[in-house]
Amino acid sequence: MNTEALDDGTLRRWGVLVVEDDSRARAFFEASVQRSPRLFWLGSAGTVQEARGWLARTTTIPDVLLVDLGMPDGTGLDVIRDAVARFPGCEPLVVSVFGDEENVLASIEAGAVGYIHKDAAPEDIAQTIVEMKAGASPISPMIARRVLAKYRSLQSASLAPGMAASGAAPEAAFDENERGLLSTREHEVLTLIARGFSYAEIARLKGLSVHTVQTHIKNLYGKLAVHSKSEAVFEATRLGLLPHPG
C-alpha cells in the first residue's frame, strides 16, 4: 500500500484508470473519480485493446485500475494482468456483473485487490477506492459468501478421505489447505495480527518494511474476502487457518 501523505504533509491523490465498455457506467465512474479530492482521473478505455494500448504507452503510473471483466473484445482479466505486470504498485478493483466464484478467484489470482458486483456498487465508487488505498480489500458481501462457501466445500472434500483413512483430527489436516490458500509469509503475518501486534511491530520482528507488511495484509484481505484485521482473524479461525482460542 502506498503512503497516505507526501513529504510536505499534503494528502496524496491517487490516479485512476477506468476500463468499462458501457458508456453510461464509464461516465458514472469517471464523474465519481473526478469529484473526489483524493483521486484524479487518468483516462478511460472501452475495450481490452484500448486499455492495453494505454498501459503500453503511458508514462504515468496508475495507482488504481477500475475494471470490468466482460469486454467486447476479451476479458478484463487480461487488462489486470498487464497492469500489475507493468506497474506492480497498481491496485485493480473489479466492478462486474459476474458474481460467480470462478471469476472472483480468477480476478484475485490475476492481481485484483477488490471485487464489487455492479448490482451492489456504491453510489460513490470513489470512496471505495480511497478505502482500498487505505488498506481495505472491498468485496461485495454476496460474493464473499459465495467464495467462502466454495472454499469450505473444497476444504471439506479434501479433508474427508484423509480423515477416514487415518483417523486424524480435523485440526491436524489443515496444514496443507493453509499452505494452498496463504503463502508462508502471509500466514506468519496473519498469526502476528491475531496476537495483537501492530504493523510496525510485525515489520521489526520479521525484518520487513511497513509497506511490505501492509501489502501482505492487503493480500490476506483479498484471499479471505474481508475488510479488517478482526474479520481476517475471525474468518481464518473459522476456516482452520488459525487455531481456535483456548
Automatic annotation (TrEMBL):
Positions bearing 4-aspartylphosphate: D68
- Provide the Response regulatory domain boundaries: 15-133
GO MF annotations for this entry? DNA binding
Matching entries from CDD domains are given as: LuxR_C_like (cd06170), REC_NarL-like (cd17535)
Keyword list (alphabetical) reads: DNA-binding, Phosphoprotein, Transcription, Transcription regulation
Could you tell me the Gene Ontology terms of the biological process aspect for this record? Answer: phosphorelay signal transduction system; regulation of DNA-templated transcription
Q: Where is the HTH luxR-type domain?
A: 175-240
Q: Which PROSITE patterns match?
A: HTH_LUXR_2, RESPONSE_REGULATORY
Specify whether Protein transport is a keyword of the entry: no
Q: Which InterPro entries match?
A: CheY-like_superfamily, NreC/VraR/RcsB-like_REC, Sig_transdc_resp-reg_C-effctor, Sig_transdc_resp-reg_receiver, Tscrpt_reg_LuxR_C, WalR-like, WH-like_DNA-bd_sf
Q: Which SMART domains does the UniProt record give?
A: HTH_LUXR, REC
> Carries keyword Mitochondrion?
no
- A Pfam family this protein belongs to? GerE
Q: Which PANTHER family match?
A: NITRATE_NITRITE RESPONSE REGULATOR PROTEIN NARP, TWO-COMPONENT RESPONSE REGULATOR
Q: What is this protein called?
A: DNA-binding NarL/FixJ family response regulator
Q: Which organism is it from?
A: Variovorax boronicumulans
Q: What is the lineage of its organism?
A: Bacteria, Pseudomonadati, Pseudomonadota, Betaproteobacteria, Burkholderiales
